[in-house]
Amino acid sequence: IAFFKQKSQLFSRYLTTNIQPQLTTPTRQWAIKRYVLIIGLPVTSFLFYRLSTKSETRRKHRIVLESIGRAAHATSIGLRSAIDQKTSLLFKTEGTDEYTAALQASRRRNAKRFAHLCIDLGGVYVKIGQAFVRISKTKRFFSFQNNSFLQINLPEVIPVEYYEELQILQERALRREKGEIDTLFKRYFRNTPENVFATFNREPIAAASLAEVYSAETKQGERVAVKVQYSDLRERFETDITTVDKSK
């Protein structure tokens, strides 16, 4: 028994010192190469992209990527709203109090989702929400077919829940990023606002969903109001309108 125990110890020691390194060394080398590829390839690609493309090209690429994310977000909210209303009305008889209560509750939830979507995405979505509110306030619409005004009740234009929830968009403006004004002025005037004007007050005196208004004084001494649109507004509007049009 002692003889076999001694032989087994020698054999296990042989495996540990000779065979195991032969098996693990290539595996470790491949693991190192794999990590280098996983980390190094994206970093190298990013550096190559930054060095080989112009800033204007990178800006357009960023807008396209952002538009994809915005479209996906809007689509997901639309699907959630449709599923919410369908599931809320399951096994309920139309015309009953239970059906009406479930429909109103579902519309309220969906209206809040749509209002928050407009706030998050801004731009054309805010304008669409504001248009819904304005349409809801208008009770008389001109019909070109009948050449006369038509009286339309509010729920026929937009559910009252949407009208109430979208009120928050009436005074809503987009969020301006830090340094955005300087970026816009350098893009179009190759200079900062303080160098274009004699004085430029960076605190906006008015704001809207598409632009902000600033007070300034020209180098000739004239007091003026400067309307500064939000960055990438045109490109974002084009992608947003395309998204809304395709979702019809």
UniProtKB/TrEMBL annotation:
Pfam families: ABC1. InterPro entries: ABC1_dom (IPR004147), Mito_struct-func_regulator (IPR051130). Residues 169-244 form the ABC1 atypical kinase-like domain. This is ABC1 atypical kinase-like domain-containing protein.
